[in-house]
Protein: Zinc finger and BTB domain containing protein 37
Organism: Mustela putorius furo
Amino acid sequence: QVEESAMMGVSGYVEYLREQEVSERWFRYNPRLTCIYCAKSFNQKGSLDRHMRLHMGITPFVCRMCGKKYTRKDQLEYHIRKHTGNKPFHCHVCGKSFPFQAILNQHFRKNHPGCIPLEGPHS
């Protein structure tokens, strides 16, 4: 897993702190977990916080290799695999490796019909 310091520059961290302050302020006036911009509802405050970043343009997670910005840490981790060539998803039938679960699933449908891939990264 990529260290947070490698993913988020100083400006990204400052944006993140600003976003936390803003979200705390508007949450006091919006206890039903409903987006004040599009009325989408959420079961958890964290989910609403992540959603609000889209409307607010807050992108605290920055790729240090190319500068691309993301609203969520998992999006950045997914993106970084394109730079690093990390392929943590392995086919237990033929041994090939893939950077993403979706590509492993596609490989199984095409090359090993009837077999089911193991979920998650494997060593």
